[in-house]
């Protein structure tokens, strides 16, 4: 059995761009390292993770820049796809072609855009999934009252409430998400071929009928999505260094 990590880093980070920054968000430096380097380092902090495979766009000009110093255990594949799911699948295919995949291998998929993952949450996810021999994800129960907007009102800041949605049983999906590598590969292949809407690894597994485990994550593991998210994440990362 081996536990490999996979970071999809083939996105353009369109929602995080601003006038001063044109590179994809995974290459923005905060707290002394790029988001991608933070994500690689936290995954390798768990001794059970042997290698971190990174999937970047075929024409990515940033990954080989001098400032991007990655550890030897990080392997870059130019396997980025049009969607996050296709980047994950194409990176799994590249791993299979270069080092092989067995039925016993597990893959831990983690967003480059979530550099705030704690070593404790990472360890919890691996412990729970390996103990139960079932795939699972980090996630957080929805803490707030949830509203559904009226469909016809599309402006982000001026929508109207149609109804309050019961929050019981609702969780916000984070990463890492841990699955048997070959099962995930098959699930992604099927879901993408069928045109199913797949926004994370768990949704591909759900599409095949699996019920992945939910393991409690933590708030600092939020995904950097908007320009204002960088400053908050930097505070967390600096605070956790000391
Ligand atoms: N075609 C894609 C799209 C996304 N990702 C990766 O998936 C992770 C989470 O996705 P998201 O935050 O949605 O990133 P982007 O798609 O880059 O963001 P945006 O939608 O704002 O452009 C990131 O590490 C991103 O690089 C990827 O590997 N390949
Ligand atoms: C995988 C993910 O991080 C779980 O929250 C998320 O689905 C990434 O994609 P999104 O397009 O930002 O929803």
From TrEMBL:
One of its GO terms (molecular function) is 2-C-methyl-D-erythritol 4-phosphate cytidylyltransferase activity. It is an enzyme of class 2 (transferase). Transmembrane segments: none annotated. This is 2-C-methyl-D-erythritol 4-phosphate cytidylyltransferase. Catalyzes the formation of 4-diphosphocytidyl-2-C-methyl-D-erythritol from CTP and 2-C-methyl-D-erythritol 4-phosphate (MEP). It catalyses: 2-C-methyl-D-erythritol 4-phosphate + CTP + H(+) = 4-CDP-2-C-methyl-D-erythritol + diphosphate. Pfam families: IspD. The record marks 167, 223 as: Positions MEP for the nucleophilic attack. InterPro entries: IspD (IPR001228), IspD/TarI (IPR034683), IspD/TarI_cytidylyltransf_bact (IPR050088), ISPD_synthase_CS (IPR018294), Nucleotide-diphossugar_trans (IPR029044). Pathway: Isoprenoid biosynthesis; isopentenyl diphosphate biosynthesis via DXP pathway; isopentenyl diphosphate from 1-deoxy-D-xylulose 5-phosphate: step 2/6. GO terms for biological process: isopentenyl diphosphate biosynthetic process, methylerythritol 4-phosphate pathway. Coiled coil: none annotated. Belongs to the IspD/TarI cytidylyltransferase family. IspD subfamily. Its EC number is 2.7.7.60. The record marks 15, 25 as: Transition state stabilizer. It comes from Oligella ureolytica. Keywords: Isoprene biosynthesis, Nucleotidyltransferase, Transferase.
């Amino acid at each position: 059995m081996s536990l490999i990590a996979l970071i999809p880093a083939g996105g353009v980070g369109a929602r995080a761009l601003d006038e001063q920054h044109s590179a994809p968000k995974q290459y923005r430096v905060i707290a002394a390292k790029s988001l991608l380097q933070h994500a690689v380092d936290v995954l390798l902090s768990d001794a059970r993770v042997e290698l971190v495979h990174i999937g970047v766009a075929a024409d990515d000009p940033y990954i080989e820049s001098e400032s991007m110093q990655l550890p030897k255990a990080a392997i870059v594949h130019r396997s980025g796809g049009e969607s996050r799911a296709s980047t994950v699948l194409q990176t799994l295919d590249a791993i299979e072609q270069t080092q092989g995949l067995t039925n016993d291998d597990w893959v831990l998929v983690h967003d480059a855009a979530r550099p705030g993952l704690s070593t404790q949450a990472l360890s919890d996810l691996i412990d729970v999934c390996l103990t139960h021999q079932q795939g699972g994800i980090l996630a957080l129960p929805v803490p707030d009252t949830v509203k559904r907007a009226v469909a016809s009102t599309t402006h982000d800041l001026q929508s109207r409430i149609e109804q309050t949605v019961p929050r019981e049983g609702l969780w916000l999906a984070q990463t890492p998400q841990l699955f048997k590598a070959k099962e995930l590969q098959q699930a992604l292949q099927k879901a993408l071929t069928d045109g199913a809407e797949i926004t994370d690894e768990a949704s591909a597994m759900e599409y095949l009928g699996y019920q992945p485990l939910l393991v409690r994550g933590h708030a600092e593991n939020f995904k950097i999505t908007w320009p204002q998210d960088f400053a908050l994440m930097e505070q967390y990362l600096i605070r956790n260094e000391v």
